[in-house]
Design brief:
Length: 227
C-alpha cells in the first residue's frame, strides 16, 4: 500500500477529510462552484456526470445541490472515502452511484460531463495520459471535462516560489508553521507536479479541444476542455 492509499484508508484521516480541502486548497469552494457552472454550460437538466476521485463527496454534494435533476457516477479507490461520500451527500445520496476502483472501473457512459478534482497529481504522467484518454472515451461529443490539481511553472526558483506561497497560505489558514512546511516538503518530494503547459498538452493528446484555464490558486490550477 502506498503512502497515499494508506492516508485515505486511515480512519482518523477519513473522518477529518471534509475539513481539509477548504483549508488546504486556496479558493476551494469557489473552484467547486465554477466547476458546476462550467459543466452546466453544456450539460442538460437531466445530465449524467462522471466524478473521478469522488471520495469524501464534497464535489458531488455541490453539483447535486446546484442541479437537482443531475445524476452521478462517482469513482474512488478507497471504500472508506466512498462511505464518507455517502454520509456527506445525506439525502442526496440516491442520485449518486458510487464505484470503488479506478478509471477502468467507471461505467462506460456515455456521460454528459466529467470532473477529476485534486486527483491527478497523485499519479505519474503516463497514467495521467491514460486516465484523460479513458475519460474522453466515456464522454458524449463536446461534453465538458473539468480538471484541477497541483500544477506549477518549471524552474527550481519559480516553482519553489509558488510552493512557498502555498505553504504561507496554509499557515495563514491556521495550520501550524511546522506542519505547513512539512506539507510543502511532502508535495515537493512525493507528488509529480507538471507544468501548466504539460497539463494542457495531456488534454489535447487525449482528444480534448479548447482547454481553458479557469482557476488558479497559488500552486493549484484548473482547466475546462471539451470532448
Amino acid at each position: 500500500m502506498t503512502d497515499i492509499q494508506a492516508m485515505f484508508s486511515d480512519p482518523q484521516a477519513v473522518a477529518n477529510y471534509t475539513d481539509g480541502p477548504p483549508r488546504f486548497v486556496p479558493g476551494y469552494n469557489a473552484m467547486l462552484s465554477m466547476a458546476a457552472i462550467l459543466l452546466a454550460e453544456r450539460a442538460h437538466q437531466d445530465a449524467r456526470i462522471l466524478v473521478l476521485g469522488a471520495g469524501g463527496g464534497l464535489e458531488l454534494r455541490m453539483f447535486a445541490q446546484a442541479q437537482p435533476r443531475w445524476s452521478f457516477d462517482g469513482v474512488d479507490p478507497s471504500g472508506a472515502m466512498l462511505a464518507l461520500a455517502r454520509q456527506t451527500l445525506g439525502p442526496l445520496a440516491p442520485r449518486a452511484r458510487l464505484h470503488q476502483g479506478y478509471i477502468d472501473d467507471a461505467p462506460e457512459g456515455p456521460f454528459d460531463g466529467a470532473t477529476c478534482l485534486l486527483t491527478l497529481h497523485f499519479v505519474d504522467i503516463a497514467e495521467r495520459r491514460r486516465i484523460a484518454s479513458e475519460i474522453r472515451r466515456r464522454l458524449k461529443p463536446r461534453a465538458p471535462f473539468v480538471v484541477a490539481h497541483l500544477s506549477a511553472p518549471d524552474g527550481d526558483e519559480e516553482r519553489a516560489r509558488w510552493l512557498s506561497r502555498y505553504s504561507a497560505f496554509l499557515a495563514f489558514s491556521g495550520v501550524e508553521p511546522d506542519k505547513a512546511a512539512a506539507a510543502r516538503d511532502a508535495v515537493t518530494h512525493h507528488l509529480e507536479i507538471l507544468t501548466p503547459a504539460q497539463d494542457e498538452a495531456i488534454l489535447r493528446a487525449a482528444g480534448f479541444s479548447d482547454p481553458a484555464l479557469f482557476y488558479t490558486g497559488f500552486a493549484f490550477r484548473g482547466w475546462v476542455a471539451y470532448a
